[in-house]
What we know:
This protein has helices spanning 18-24, 26-36, 38-50, 62-79, 89-92, 115-126, 141-145, 164-181, 184-201, 206-212, 227-241, 275-289, 316-334, and strands at 4-5, 12-13, 55-59, 83-85, 103-109, 130-135, 148-151, 217-222, 244-249, 266-271, 293-298. The radius of gyration is 20 Å and the shape is globular. By secondary structure, the protein is of the alpha/beta class. The protein has 13 helices and eleven strands.
Amino acid sequence: xxxxxxxxxxxxxxxxxxxxxxxxxxxxxxxxxxxxxxxxxxxxxxxxxxxxxxxxxxxxxxxxxxxxxxxxxxxxxxxxxxxxxxxxxxxxxxxxxxxxxxxxxxxxxxxxxxxxxxxxxxxxxxxxxxxxxxxxxxxxxxxxxxxxxxxxxxxxxxxxxxxxxxxxxxxxxxxxxxxxxxxxxxxxxxxxxxxxxxxxxxxxxxxxxxxxxxxxxxxxxxxxxxxxxxxxxxxxxxxxxxxxxxxxxxxxxxxxxxxxxxxxxxxxxxxxxxxxxxxxxxxxxxxxxxxxxxxxxxxxxxxxxxxxxxxxxxxxxxxxxxxxxxxxxxxxxxxxxxxxxxxxxxxxxxxx
Length: 352
């Protein structure tokens, strides 16, 4: 169904943006990633079981760092190994030399050429860490540094707002954890993911868009596997729609942030079908009781508003963010903006 958005003298068709087109390629991107990397993932899983690291370190910026947050929960819950996020400034600004370590570094990047990310990976590799790169540009400097390269296979992404590459990054992290832990339920769910992403992109989140078009602030909440996509959703609202949005764990949002809630304050929740989702549901109910305008993507409820798709709890957030991307593209246009070219931003941020 084609939707026309009035943003000025000339109506804009939402489906004509690069963001809409590229987000809609999420399912195909995931299918390519899983097919192309099947052997490398199996080999990596066997290696990690035979010689497990004492620590996993993620290295990423922006949307890729939100994917890394998702990966942290997966590795810690499925593999039992602690995960820390690298602070790139330690290498790029302070030039600190790392001590020898038994660590796995997972670097996540679209371009694979951000200078501070490269310096960080070089520092850890010099200290003896094994490096795995999830990267969309296969001939990038990051790929050249890695011991194992897992091409995201998302294809060119022209919109400044990352979509299909983020979905492929989430999938890559889920696949690493699934092969490492030999979690058959998650491996099966990954095989079903491309088709489910196609269905998720067609879900109608218009009720959320209607609330956010006139909003000035937004809270986005998740917990566990869904916290990383809550972070990503908040970033995309700021990036594409100039809407101030903040992400919180449902375990934290009841503290200081609750104090600013008033009638009509918008909240978007991502609730998976597991125990972590129960806490998101409870927090959303508390917000609603205080008059907030709550929209809860609830994988445990077949009639949730907005709708979502039930799957393995680790896969549900990937499906939710796919639906969200289509909705935020429309919000951006309805707010008179161009989601493909946000002001003051460019595709690759070369932080030093």
